[in-house]
Amino acid sequence: MNKYLEVSKEVAEALASGKPVIALESTIISHGMPYPQNVETAIKVEDTIRENGAVPATIAIIGGKLKAGLTKDEIEYLGKKGVEVTKASRRDIPVLVAQGRDGATTVTTTMMIAAMAGIKIFATGGIGGVHRGAETTMDISADLEELSQTQVMVICAGAKSILDLGLTLEYLETKGVPVIGYGTEELPAFYTRKSGFKVDYRIDTPEDLAKAFKTKIDLDLKGGMLVTNPIPEQYSMDPDVINKAIDTAIAESVKLGIKGKETTPFLLAKVKELTGGDSLASNIELVLNNARLAAKTGVAMSKLN
Ligand code: PSU
Ligand code: MN
Description:
Structural class: alpha/beta
Bound molecules: pseudouridine-5'-monophosphate, manganese (II) ion
Number of strands: 11
């Protein structure tokens, strides 16, 4: 494994001395936002994690290496290349690594590489899930399988209603993944604080999040924990505006016959196009909010033994 894994000096030193480290994904950089906002946000997220007492480890596949901890130049490189970088899920790793290629890591592959490096907590925007119409397309994100087998806490703002949120929760229940609401009983839906669906448990402090996940690790229960952190009120969007955009985007993807790994990036780009700069601004703020919570939870976890 060490042959393929490359942990940056800063991240390796932090892990060796028991300092909290927070993993970050790179698909959000290459596929999630336009350049240069993607690079600016990625750097701002790293700074936010440092300001809150932890060390950031942005994860990607570069030149066939599984990297935990990127330089600013590497972040700039991924951000500039954008959607030309392969969106890398679990199935993509062997070929990309064998051929010395680049890959932008999704929630799935970020969890995998974080776990290989010994990182326990990962902050992002939104996760993949069960798509609407999955009863015929079988389009279910590999993120849900990864949450069921890899021991990393994922802190997100819920999932966008480009997905079937009810079916996504059912799938996570079947797979034994605890879904926590941070300060809420309701599953947030990324741009909005409400979805109409309940989470399994409400937890109100980073200390209690850390304790719950530490207990899962101590019990040797495989799989992760999904923490859903609602977007701050002042940045949340009008549900009617966002849901209308989502419905239009889905109708268009069906009409164009979009399939497989293209589905999520297509829907995300379309929703963004339809809602203009508002959704980008909200997206950036919710990621920063998740980074803050992840760093605080990491600090709390490093105090437990
Ligand atoms: N949902 C979002 N923003 C994202 C993604 C999903 O709101 O950036 C990205 C994440 O990297 C996630 C991936 O892991 O898309 C899921 O893709 P798929 O549905 O193809 O599994
Ligand atoms: Mn899919």
